[in-house]
Specification:
Layout: H1 4-15, E1 20-24, H2 30-36, E2 43-48, H3 63-69, E3 76-81, H4 84-94, E4 100-105, H5 111-122, E5 125-131, H6 141-150, E6 155-159, E7 165-169
Parallel strand pairs: 1-2, 1-4, 2-3, 4-5
Antiparallel strand pairs: 5-7, 6-7
């Protein structure tokens, strides 16, 4: 059975021309592989601290994701290992002007860091997906609603199935 987040991501990649993808909070790579297996990516950015603090297993490194990607045809993959509160701003400084077609924010589920991740990626993301918006163990619906309030020019959707996925289209992409 396909996880609901994966269904949302597959729908996005099938309806937009997604060639670059960043995932914050990769864990076991289920949603990552849903994207990789349903579009032809040129650039992939993988961000996690691999501690399992916010769910999933403790991996300690990205090696299991590199193994998953071994047979995939992604020309460029960059691993941003560590806390997204630090690695994403550092990536922005090192890559000024670079846009990423789709970014999944599914890392730290505490409200303040989750909101900071949304703000950080809004600077370079064309489409943002935000997972676990309605998860009963987190208070992320308020975070999503605040993000929607401060980005009124974006097209916003909230998929309430599962634990909820918020989608913000900040810049239109070709089909």
């Amino acid at each position: 059975m396909v996880h609901y987040l994966s269904e949302v991501l597959i729908s996005i990649v099938r309806s937009h021309r997604i060639r670059s993808y960043m995932e914050i909070g990769v864990n076991e790579g289920r949603s990552l592989m849903a994207v990789v297996n349903n579009t032809k990516l040129d650039y992939l950015y993988v961000c996690d601290n691999w501690t399992g603090k916010h769910g999933g297993k403790v991996w300690k490194s990205h090696e299991h994701i590199a193994t998953l990607l071994d047979n995939c045809q992604v020309p460029y993959t960059e691993y941003l290992d560590g806390d997204s509160q630090k690695t994403i701003p550092e990536w922005c400084v090192a890559n000024p002007g670079v846009k990423v077609d789709l970014v999944l924010v599914d890392g730290n589920h505490d409200p303040e860091p989750a909101f900071q991740d949304l703000q950080n990626v809004a600077e370079f993301a064309k489409i943002i997906a935000f997972d676990d918006v309605m998860h009963p163990g987190h208070n992320l619906l308020d975070v999503w609603n605040h993000f929607v309030d401060i980005t009124p020019s974006a097209e916003h959707q909230l998929h309430a199935e599962g634990h909820g996925v918020g989608v913000a289209v900040l810049e239109q992409l070709g089909a």
